[in-house]
Amino acid sequence: MARGRFITFEGGEGCGKSTQVRRLAAQLQAAGIDVVLTREPGGTRLAELVRGLLKDEREDPPCDRSELLLFLAARAQLVRNVIRPALAAGKWVLSDRFSDSTFAYQGYGRGLPLDTIRLANDFACDGLKPDMTLLLEVDAATAARRMRGREAATATAADRIEQAGDDFHARLREGFRALAAAEPDRIRRIDASGTPDDVEGRIWTLLKPLI
Asked: Which helix (H) or strand (E) segment is 114 a member of?
């Protein structure tokens, strides 16, 4: 049985990742491909519990180093229990965020050493890397408008990381661009400023050669 494909979606807040992950899953399933859809942090019971800790901003929010280690613990569980078994079974795995978010958020955003993150992430992933990463990009104004719309539609407030401030989010956008420049064959930049249908079409054009 051929190994499945591992596709990750990355980008800053409000770029439309979650919408496009679901749309791509539907397209692949319509093409007869078995798809596993997951997210980070999350995807396993342990990782979903970690997700709650990371978003919690009440009495004892995680410091920057704790934040990094919690993300990596959740990732290690997801890789071992979900992603590798699915790929071995010939399924395609689509993940809403993966390792590149750690480099962008905790590395470029928080300022933690990139070399340290790289070593720790390699250990957590046991060497696993995506076959393709789709980096969805929008400008800061568009991202902010989308986030306000999402909060209004769902009656929810921005979480601890979403509230990190404009300078933080500017640094992580720069980080994503640097990551894409370093690995252009894997990380494909997508203009996500159009309609959901427009963005879906751009993604499908990139993915078709892998099918």
From this structure: helix 114-125
Question: What CATH number does residue 58 fall under?
Answer: 3.40.50.300
Query: The tokens of 28 are what?
Result: 């692949």
pLDDT digits (tens, 9 = 90+) for 64-96: 999 999 999 999 999 999 999 999 999 999 999
* Span 29-52, average pLDDT: 95
What domain range is 96 assigned to? 6-210
**Would you say residue 98 lies in a domain?**
yes
8 Å CB contact between 178 and 104: no
Q: Examine residue 1 and state whether it is found in any structural domain, yes or no.
A: no
- List Cβ neighbours of 184 (8 Å cut-off, separation of 6 or more): none
The answer to whether the predicted template modeling score (pTM) of the entire model surpasses 0.85 is yes
Q: Is the distance from CB of 174 to CB of 71 less than 8 angstroms?
A: no
Residues 67-105 as b/e (b if ≥16 CB within 10 A, e otherwise) read bbbbbbebbbbbbeebbbebbeeebbbbbbbbbbbbbbb
Placement of tokens 């770029």 in the chain: 15
**Weakest mean pLDDT among 97-111, 116-130, 133-147:** 133-147
The number of beta carbons lying within 10 Å of the beta carbon of residue 21 is 23
Write down how long the chain is.
211
What is the secondary structure of 1-21 as a DSSP string?
-----EEEEE-STTS-HHHHH
**Count: domains in the chain:** 1
How many Å apart are CA 54 and CA 42, to the nearest integer? 11
User: Would 18 be classed as within a structural domain?
Assistant: yes
